[in-house]
Design goal:
The structure holds two protein chains of two kinds. Chain A has a single domain, classed as SCP2 sterol-binding domain (Nonspecific Lipid-transfer Protein, Chain A), CATH 3.30.1050. Chain A has five helices and five strands; from the N terminus they run ααββββααβα. Chain A has helices spanning about 5-25, 25-35, 75-85, 90-95, 105-125, and strands spanning about 35-45, 45-50, 55-60, 70-75, 100. In chain A, a hairpin with a 3-residue loop joins strand 1 and strand 2 (about 45-50). The radius of gyration of chain A is 14 Å and the shape is globular. Chain A starts with 6 loop residues before the first helix and ends in a 9-residue tail after the last helix. Chain B has a single domain (about 15-415), classed as Cytochrome p450, CATH 1.10.630.10. Helix content of chain B is about 50%, strand content about 10%. Chain B has 18 helices and ten strands. Chain B has a five-stranded mixed sheet with strand order 1-2-8-5-3. In chain B, strands 4-10-9 form a three-stranded antiparallel sheet. In chain B, helix 6 runs parallel beside helix 18 (about 375-390), helix 11 crosses helix 13 (about 245-260) and helix 16 (about 290-305) crosses helix 18 (about 375-390). Chain B is globular and about 65 Å long. Chain B starts with 15 loop residues before the first helix and ends in a 5-residue tail after the last strand. Classes of the chains: A alpha+beta, B alpha+beta. The interface of A and B includes residues 91, 95, 103, 105 and 108 of A. The complex binds protoporphyrin IX containing FE. Protoporphyrin IX containing FE (HEM) binds near residues 164, 259, 266, 364 and 371 of chain B.
């Protein structure tokens, strides 16, 4: 699977998709309504992103190392695949590619919203000429 | 979706306390509704999977009469399954991962159900039936020397998951893992289980284990086909369409729920009924082979292991004098439909010779009618044939421990006794 090379890339694209999501007139309010914070720990390369949906803030690096309602840990490759709709949540969990902490109920509320963002993520990669990251 | 503000019925069946009562106590309440307000508007219930009730949430229509359950089940143009069918709300993600055809509407439902059904060939069914009889024999033989056992874990719970694993082709070394995961999925509303783990985590863990094991089998069969159901599912093709891996995993997960607790609960309820009604037991034993096909329908009506399923209205519809608006939730109470005095003579009697063509335990005879009904009946015939021949005086002893649930008419524990064999 094609993947990210640097922490900056992860912050740019994965952080970027949450920025777009919060700005979206349909998805943004639905995300805020969840009232939750989500933290994501990435490996290969390492990165941390925390999104506070009601506060509409996206934190990275040291700032992101905070308590959250739900915590997802995965490799950067898995994250890139997930946002393109190529990774099944239960299967990734079963194979140890993704672990969840905190409230599973909160995560289950977010998952359907993430689906609406798959095309947005792919077009963001296209706009940035990152066809290398797109999974056929 | 609808702005209509309606008063909730004075008979409140959304109260958690109502669902902690025994089935008989609940039936007394349903009988009032059937007679007086067969379609009633009820306040919303909370779901342990979704958290507290949202204050803006509307209530639901309670459908308690046999004929109305049939109407709701058949009119799939009006009553949709796609937004979930459990009484308690499920996250939509869970529907996709775990409920397959159960929460699809036409045309997708028709297409996928056809693909799946095409793999249940007569040859495959008769093969699994032979295996079910052998397995039932082993289960009963395994307890015959004991004389006194907890029936649910020793008997009822054993056959259903074994059947599904065998049918799908789950490798021997994975079966225990599958059994545990399946049990996590069906007990998310059991306080004993969910005390240890929050319900959503329990369910998600169960689902992910099942998906993982199933994908391994899919990959193995794709690489080297065998003569089993999973190979057939991988290869199935109807009108140029085939099943995706996601669809196969979701179907397998559905089987682990739909085909597990249902037969298990029916087995326990039936042992209790045969104990309570010795005349019916004698009647059956006198000519088991000649009477079991009719009797088994009464087992299922009597148990009504699935008590509730819901739909969402897509159009305005008149039902028993009430106007259901688009977007309204509608919940069918199968257990009540199976006690409807307009559909059955003396429904309160366990009667193994009864004409049971109206029973709605497998659903109201619409397009979602239980796909496993034949298999369920085979399992019940096999296990009771073995019980009544190997342990002819087996009986339920003492009171059962009921499951508090709005969905499954469950018994968690039931002691049974019999003369121990050599
Ligand atoms: C006594 C045992 C059982 C009972 C009472 C039962 C009950 C039901 C009910 C009420 C429905 C929904 C029907 C509707 O919406 O109209 C259903 C659907 C289903 N059942 Fe069963 N079931 C039993 C055993 C089984 C078994 C053993 C299997 C499979 C191994 C199974 C597989 C299914 C499937 C796949 C569906 C979904 C069908 C669809 O949506 O098209 N069931 N069952």
């Amino acid at each position: 699977m094609p993947g990210f090379a640097t922490t900056e890339e992860i912050n740019k694209y994965i952080g970027g998709i949450f920025e777009k999501a919060l700005d979206d007139t349909d998805i943004g309010p639905r995300l805020m309504a969840t009232g939750m914070t989500l933290r994501m720990n990435f490996s290969d390369p390492e990165a941390v992103i925390t999104v506070d949906f009601p506060g509409q803030s996206i934190l990275t690096g040291e700032d992101a190392i905070v308590d959250a309602d739900a915590i997802l840990s995965m490799s950067a490759d898995t994250a890139n695949g997930y946002w393109q709709g190529k990774v099944s949540l239960p299967l990734a969990m079963a194979k140890g590619k993704l672990t969840i902490g905190g409230s599973a109920a909160e995560l289950l509320k977010l998952a359907p919203l993430a689906k609406d963002l798959h095309p947005v993520y792919i077009s963001m990669l296209e706009e940035n000429d990152r066809h290398d990251l797109i999974i056929a | 979706m609808t702005a209509t503000k309606r008063d909730y019925d004075t008979v409140d069946i959304s109260d958690p306390a109502f669902w902690e009562k025994t089935p008989d106590e609940r039936e007394r309440v349903f009988s009032v509704l059937r007679r007086e307000r067969p379609v009633s508007w009820q306040r919303p219930i909370s779901s342990p999977l979704m958290g507290e009730v949202n204050e803006n949430e509307a209530g639901y229509w309670a459908v308690v009469r046999n004929e109305d359950i049939v109407t709701v089940s058949r009119r799939t143009d009006v009553f949709s399954s796609a937004r979930g069918v459990t009484f308690e709300d499920m996250p939509s993600e869970v529907l996709e991962m775990a409920s397959s055809i159960l929460t699809m509407d036409a045309p997708r439902h028709t297409k996928v159900r056809k693909l799946i059904s095409s793999t249940f060939t007569p040859k495959r069914i008769s093969l699994i039936e032979d295996q079910i009889y052998r397995q039932a024999h082993e289960i009963v033989r395994g307890i015959a020397h004991l004389g006194d056992v907890e029936f649910v874990s020793a008997v009822s719970a054993r056959l259903p998951m074994w059947t599904i694993s065998e049918m799908i082709g789950i490798p021997e070394e994975k079966r225990e893992e599958v059994r545990e995961a399946a049990n996590l999925m069906i007990s998310w509303d059991d306080d004993e289980v969910s005390d240890a783990l929050d319900p959503a985590t329990a369910m998600l863990n169960g689902i992910s284990t099942l998906h993982g094991v199933c994908q391994d089998v899919i990959d193995a069969r794709r690489a080297s086909p065998e003569n089993d159901l999973l190979t057939a599912l991988v290869q199935a093709e109807v009108d140029g369409a085939s099943l995706t891996d996601d669809e196969i995993r979701s179907f397998f997960t559905l089987l682990c729920v739909a085909g597990n607790d249902t037969t298990k609960q029916t087995t326990t309820h039936t042992l209790r009924a045969l104990t309570e009604y010795p005349d019916q037991r004698r009647y059956l034993a006198e000519d088991f082979d000649g009477r079991i096909d009719t009797a088994v329908l009464e087992f299922v009506r009597w148990a009504s292991p699935v008590m509730t399923f819901g739909r969402t209205a897509l159009k305005r519809f008149e039902l028993a004098g009430r106007t259901i608006e688009p977007g309204d939730r509608v919940v069918m109470f199968y257990a009540s439909g199976n006690q409807d005095e307009t559909a059955f003579d003396s429904p309160e009697r366990f009667d193994l010779s009864r004409d049971n063509r109206n029973h709605v335990a497998f659903g109201g005879r619409g397009p979602h009618y239980c796909l496993g009904s034949h298999l369920a009946k085979t399992q019940l015939k096999a296990i009771f044939s073995e019980l009544l021949t190997q342990l002819p005086d087996i009986r339920a002893e003492g009171e059962p421990e009921y499951l508090a649930s709005t969905f499954i008419n469950g018994i968690k524990k039931q002691r049974c006794v019999f003369t121990a064999q050599e």
